[in-house]
Amino acid sequence: MTIHIYAETENDIHPLIFPAEHTAPANNTGDVRLSLLKDSGNTMITHFLFSPGSRNYWHYHSGIVQTLLVLDGKGWYQEEGSPKRRIKKGDVIVTPADVKHWNGAASDKPLVCITVTESGVDGHVVQLRPVTDEEYGYDRDENKKHVMCAKLPMSPDGITRLSKIEVYPEWLEEYMKFATEVGAISLQTEPGVLTMYAVADKDNPCNITILETYSSQEAYKKHIASPHFQKYKQGTLHMVKSLVLDDVTPLNPDNQITNFIIDK
């Protein structure tokens, strides 16, 4: 029997109680961090921080029971053959031995949790396959859904940029269609595009500034080579009067922005 205890309330993310210092192994999708709190005897205790949109693979624990304690945030949990279910701060889930399952963060909020596994460190997990985007789905409320693929962590060679664009007034409306489309597709489909947030001057809407962050130089190269960016670039060449790409340095690298698209 699987035991589930669900909390009644949900709060905003608070500072981490335990560290999450290490990047999780490759059998995860998106940015997952962890720290082993206990790795001796017959019990392993692991602290996890799942970034928005990230999740582990389908897996099971051979002959071993595992308990999941949600400390903060919100996310998803699913066992094979059952619908996925929301989890949030205060929830406790006990997964029986040999039951295939996965868990991860919501698309718009991190998940902080602890797992208690009744075994030693080696050999207790049998990894299966990634959770597909269709299985993961997206968070919804009654009127809208958040849409964004799992994101990569910011690397030391990551890019933070202010793109300053001046558009010819007669092309402004058409330019905005191209810019809106490329921004939405990039955030939805590119793990290395972390932020793409555009604003226009109040006094002169033809002056547009876009805050862009990319997880690495390689992610940026993939972005500008993508079909949707090339469509935007070639389609707006005659609309843009001037373009300045201003790379900047965050004052506090730990204060990172994650933005997403809301389909209404």
What's a concise summary of this model?
The chain is α+β, with helices and mostly antiparallel strands and 264 residues long. 16% of the residues lie in helices and 39% in strands. The strands form 5 sheets. Strands 1, 2, 4, 5, 8, 9, 10, 11 and 12 form a 9-stranded antiparallel sheet that branches.
Which keywords apply here?
four-stranded antiparallel sheet; 264 residues; Alpha-Beta Plaits; alpha+beta; disordered N terminus; Jelly Rolls; nine-stranded antiparallel sheet; 2 domains
Could you characterize the architecture of this molecule?
- There is one protein chain.
- This protein is an alpha+beta fold and 264 residues long.
- It folds into 2 domains: 3-138, Jelly Rolls (Sandwich); 159-263, Alpha-Beta Plaits, CATH 3.30.70.
- The protein has helices at residues 133-136, 172-189, 217-225, 227-236; strands at 3-5, 22-23, 28-29, 32-38, 44-50, 55-56, 59-61, 66-79, 85-88, 92-95, 101-105, 111-117, 125-127, 145-147, 159-167, 193-200, 207-214, 240-247, 261-263.
- Strands 1, 2, 4, 5, 8, 9, 10, 11 and 12 form a 9-stranded antiparallel sheet that branches. The protein has a 4-stranded antiparallel sheet with strand order 16-17-15-18, covered by helices on one side. Strands 3-6 form a two-stranded antiparallel ribbon.
- The longest helix has 18 residues, at 172-189.
- The chain is elongated and about 70 Å long.
- Mean pLDDT is 83; it is low at 1-11 and 139-146.
Please outline the helices and strands.
Blueprint: E1 3-5, E2 22-23, E3 28-29, E4 32-38, E5 44-50, E6 55-56, E7 59-61, E8 66-79, E9 85-88, E10 92-95, E11 101-105, E12 111-117, E13 125-127, H1 133-136, E14 145-147, E15 159-167, H2 172-189, E16 193-200, E17 207-214, H3 217-225, H4 227-236, E18 240-247, E19 261-263
Antiparallel strand pairs: 1-10, 2-4, 3-6, 4-5, 5-12, 7-13, 8-9, 8-10, 8-11, 8-12, 14-19, 15-17, 15-18, 16-17
Helix pairs in contact: 2-4
